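Reopening this ticket.

The earlier resolution said the output was attached, but the attachment link was broken on my side. Pasting everything inline this time so it's all in one place.
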Amino acid sequence: MTDIERKILDYMVTYLRSNTYQPSIREIGERFGIKSTKTVSEHLQALADKGFLERDPSRSRGVKILGVDLQPDAVTVPCFEALPGDRSATAVDHLTVDRRLAGTKGSFFVRARGDELAALGLVEGDWVLLEPAEAHEVPDGGVVAAEIGGAPARWGRVSRNGRGIYVQGLRRGDAPTLVEDLSRIRVLGRVAGFVRRFDGTPAGANLTAH
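Inline output:
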């Protein structure tokens, strides 16, 4: 962020905490002595392009702040429709949850698909919480999303013996993969919890409290 973009974002966060709604473009301009609403809009668009905001041009205050903790006891966590194949993957949503549930920096949610996590009792649409971990940190029985030998990321349960780490797939009939060289495995995250609504409504933007 540029200096003025950071100041605008900080102002928006402070304003939102105090008022429960966002400042208007005109109010932002007045706060920083910017006479042109077009210039303010360009700064907001730059913040949106960099992933700090989400804009709704159909609303006068149609801005949602992303990735910023607006409450001291809560944290905003990015959500992905599938396991992200690389670190530049774009989140489709954000959920704000209690910091005790997802307080580890770098945590993220992935939506369960089909029966891929049925062994954990999870169903299509559940949001699965993953927190950062290295392979050697995952305890026996821990479930991870990991890339092995450069293959696409998949879910598996970790166990060990004297030869290395076994990653057992969660679908019936999956054969375990033995990883003797830990440099061949990249753990995207360790499963730490999940979010599910019991009224049939998909968990999503309606759980995000900005």
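Reporter confirms the inline version is readable. The two ends are 21 Å apart (CA to CA). The longest helix spans residues 3-19.
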